[in-house]
Specification:
This protein is an alpha/beta fold. The chain has 13 helices and 23 strands.
């Protein structure tokens, strides 16, 4: 269902508490279901992706109750899971699909997973192949490249695996399989990807070592239920950080934003581009540190985004591209081939849709080049069913001269169900 947005270039003023971090919310349910005993979660993201994760574990026999953003998980532990009588449906969630491949491979269960049409096009062998090296039995279309996937659980052996590309999902799937594997599982990263899995392993009582990009986990460890406090999602906050920087006469305060150092690349880019921004850490000793971030209308300049920072902001590149259209000079984004295998090909999607609004932007093999500063006009945009493309279009509407139509704004609910409420709350 299409949505037409016209904001007449308002100023944005006010406070926002963004929803819980999607990556941490997924993992809180997964680890709570692996662990023995009771796990409580506060600040859980009630987005469609995370609710799919809950549904999958309920089908595995785990007792999970949701009360607002509080979740209670009572689990007998992974050995107490029961074989599901129906297919596990993961919807649009790549995190659910890929991480559960690792978990299910080490059980005694036979399971089948599938997702929506978008998931059916996303590559799964990057996870399936290293799991097969551990002894996993995974079948699927194109030798396990695409869903639906069938997993026959069984005994696993640890591997020492060098990551060919920085991917927290691949790393996490291997580590989750490693919990059940015989021996010590080692994952080696040249560029560090987000480390929520390593942090949460420790929260649930596991011993995991991380040194110079090498993660090691001894198999056979038992996890115990605990409490998980989910921080606000910096990937969701990024859209309002950019909005506050590019909308006229604006000042937005974002509270309880997760600032995990493997996720905070957007803050570094904003600082390099000259944003008027302050970051005040709430509790740097928390399992996932948080901050209060204030952003104001800024005179911005172009920059180059490349190399090791890319895994720290891969989900924020669509909104960084919009930011670049309002920044003086040239912005170059490269080393971002991973964008091609997200919910859609985000390189092509970002370039195609921003061009419709008048942006001076061109795609490259591994990113894009944007010339700014460019005034934007109205237009009709495709979201491709991708929440990040949808939110990018909505933020563009705040500064565009004319109406911006989104063909499917409902997809934004995957990660940010209250997105438009929060926009309306700060319009002035």
């Amino acid at each position: 269902m299409s949505t037409t947005l016209q904001y007449s270039q308002p100023s944005l003023q006010g406070d926002i508490t963004v929803p819980g971090d999607k990556s941490v919310s997924h993992r809180s349910v997964m680890f709570g279901s692996i662990a023995e005993g009771k796990t409580t979660v506060s600040g859980f993201l009630l987005g469609e992706d995370c609710l799919r994760t809950i549904d999958c574990f309920q089908k595995l026999g785990v007792d999970i109750e949701v009360n607002g953003t509080d979740v209670t998980i009572n689990s007998p532990g992974i050995d107490g899971w029961t074989e599901p009588k129906e297919v596990l449906y993961t919807g649009n969630s790549g995190t659910t699909t890929r991480l559960m491949l690792g978990l299910l491979s080490g059980t005694k269960l036979h399971t089948i997973m599938t997702g929506d049409a978008s998931i059916g096009k996303r590559p799964m062998r990057r996870v399936a192949d290293p799991l097969r090296l551990m002894g996993a039995q995974i079948a699927g279309r194109d030798n396990g490249q695409y869903t639906p996937l069938a997993i026959q659980g069984g005994p696993l052996k640890a591997i020492d695996y060098k990551m060919p590309v920085a991917s927290a999902q691949v790393k996490s799937a291997i580590l989750l399989a490693g919990i059940r594997a015989e021996g010590t599982t080692v994952v080696r990263e040249e560029e560090i990807s987000r480390d929520h899995t390593e942090r949460m392993l420790r929260q649930f009582g596991a011993t995991v070592t991380v040194e110079d990009g090498v993660v090691s986990l001894q198999g056979g460890q038992t996890l115990s239920g605990t409490h998980v406090n989910v921080p606000g999602d910096i990937s969701s906050a990024a859209f309002f950080l950019v909005a506050g920087a590019i909308a006229k006469n604006s000042r937005i305060v974002l509270k309880n934003v997760g600032v995990n150092e493997t996720r905070d690349g957007i803050l570094e880019v904003l600082q390099k581009m000259g944003a008027k921004m302050s970051v005040v850490i709430d509790d740097e000793n928390a399992a996932e540190p948080t901050a209060t971030i204030t952003i104001e209308t800024s005179d911005l300049k172009g920059t180059t985004v490349e190399g090791a920072i890319i895994p720290r902001l891969i989900d924020e590149i669509p909104i960084i591209a919009l930011l670049a259209t309002q920044s003086a000079g040239k912005t170059i984004i490269k080393d971002a081939e991973e964008l091609k295998v997200k919910e859609t090909n985000r390189i092509d999607a970002v370039v195609n849709e921003l061009k419709k609004l008048g942006a001076n932007i061109e795609a490259t093999d591994d990113g894009m080049v944007i010339e700014g500063s460019t005034p934007l006009h109205g237009g009709s945009l495709k979201t491709y069913g991708d929440h990040r493309i949808g939110m990018m279009g909505a933020i563009a509407a705040l500064i565009a001269d004319g109406e911006v139509e989104l063909d499917d704004a409902d997809c934004i609910a995957v990660s940010y169900p209250t997105f438009f409420d929060h926009i309306n709350n700060i319009l002035k």
